[in-house]
Specification:
CATH architecture of the largest domain: Orthogonal Bundle
Strand order of the largest sheet: 3-4-7-8
Order of helices and strands: HEEHHHHHHHHHEEHHHHHHHEHEEEHHEH
Number of helices: 21
Largest sheet: 4 strands, mixed
Shape: globular
Strand content: 5-15%
Distance between the termini: 70 Å
CATH superfamily of the largest domain: Hypothetical protein af1432
């Protein structure tokens, strides 16, 4: 019994914050659970390591960091006279620890590719409900806070809002591992400025410049990292690989797969499947980056020329050319690209969608129409950061920026495929 208690006092050595301690025994038990250990096998930034080689950190790292920041935020809020009970603190810590537990392989890259119309937040909730049953109802309050059904709204806002501990950690962590210094933010300063007014999370007005820097950093990180054009090309390529594999599976083609990937590749699953069939969540809990990577390595030698071409491009990092524009590409230009690629690769009209594809991306660093980042002044008044910012025009940054892209094979890829065909 003594050893069991001692083991729960573990500390983690984090490259950003130093030693992270576990504030409650149940946190240790949740971290030890296979559902949470799976996060060690899911990269935080999906395929971003193909551009920034250091971006190999995982969802496991991020979840621990976000929990650490949340506990520090709760200490600050308590120090300013707001009551947060031990039970509420424990529940909030659980909520932030498990907020990303529903992520699939390569995080956001394949979110709607493996299962239909089910985002990671839905699956996170289902995992939490499953864990709650296993832990005899000890996650009841955590789920209530996570789903924003608890009367102390600021606790949910620490987990999910425009100034939550999730964003504070991933900006600082992703900046560190990619080496993109534009994403560096002062988490200590921001957290020390947190307060609560009328049950809502807010920031003391003297912290305004730290918040401006946070919003700017988020905008820059999206364009330089999260929506980097080469990352976008790689992510669209891996989506096309799984789409092609799914198409072949539907035709009865036997593909090499791990058991977990086979389950989702050869059968269709939506949110109702997850809710009504316990085995669906069980299979998803076995699915991670390694399932996809191992399969792609095998598929590069598959007899289907489309699948093998796409997989070889992914494995060898011979990515498609991507063009970005502030306005939509004309149908005439897209058609010209398609005609050229189809003629050179001698592919069918149906296969063309895997080689020429287009779409759009959007960057919205701050959205005042959602839950706002409110500044608290000494007289007790509240003002939205977009209205209060004086040095930088946050209201401009709050407007979404949309860009359009089109992808097609590089000429070198076309030449290599022609040689292989000969």
């Amino acid at each position: 019994m003594e050893n069991k208690i001692y083991n729960k006092k573990k500390i983690f050595n984090d490259p950003l914050y130093g030693f992270i301690s576990l504030p409650f025994n149940i946190i240790f038990d949740l971290i030890e659970h296979p559902y949470f250990q799976r996060l060690r096998r899911i990269k935080q930034l999906g395929l971003t390591h193909l551009v920034y080689p250091g971006a190999l950190h995982t969802r496991f790292h991020h979840a621990l960091g976000a929990m650490h920041l949340t506990m520090r935020a709760i200490e600050v809020i308590r120090s300013k006279g707001h009551k947060v009970t031990k039970k509420e603190a424990r529940a909030t810590a659980i909520g932030i620890l498990l907020h990303d537990i529903g992520h699939g392989p390569f995080s956001h890259a394949l979110e709607f590719c493996i299962v239909k119309n089910v985002n990671h937040e839905h699956i996170s909730t289902l995992f939490m409900q499953r864990l709650n049953a296993q832990f005899n109802g000890k996650l009841d309050l955590a789920i209530e806070i996570f789903e924003n059904r608890y009367h102390k709204t600021f606790l949910h806002q620490l987990i999910s809002s425009q100034l939550d501990m999730d964003r504070l950690d991933y900006l600082k962590r992703d900046s560190f591992f990619t080496g993109v210094s534009e994403g560096v933010i002062n988490t200590d300063r921001i957290i020390s400025m947190l307060n609560v007014k009328d049950g809502q999370l807010c920031v003391e007005a003297k912290g305004i410049y730290s918040i401006e820097k946070f919003i700017i950093a988020r905008r820059l990180m999206y364009w330089q990292v999260y929506l980097h054009k080469t990352v976008l090309s790689a992510e669209k390529l891996i989506v096309n690989i799984l789409t092609r594999a799914k198409e072949l599976a539907n035709k009865g083609e036997d593909l090499f797969c791990t058991d977990a990937l086979r389950y989702f590749l050869y059968t269709e699953h939506d949110i109702d499947s997850f809710k009504n069939k316990p085995e669906v969540l069980d299979q998803f809990s076995d699915l991670d980056d390694f399932d996809i990577t191992a399969s792609i390595k095998m598929w590069k030698n598959h007899k289907d020329p489309v699948l093998s071409f796409l997989c070889r491009a992914q494995i060898d990092r011979n990515l498609f050319k991507i063009e970005l524009s502030n306005s939509d590409f004309s149908p005439t230009y897209i058609k010209e690209l398609e005609t050229k690629v189809q003629a050179e690769l001698k592919i069918s009209e149906k296969q063309l969608k895997y080689f020429v594809f287009s779409g759009s991306i959007e960057n919205n660093a701050y959205n005042p129409k959602k839950d706002k980042i409110n500044l608290l002044y000494k007289d007790g008044s509240i003002q939205d950061i977009a209205e209060a910012a004086d040095q930088l025009n946050i209201s401009v940054l709050s407007k979404p920026v949309k860009k359009y892209y089109v992808c097609s094979p590089k000429q070198s890829m076309v030449n290599n495929l022609k040689k292989a065909q000969l």
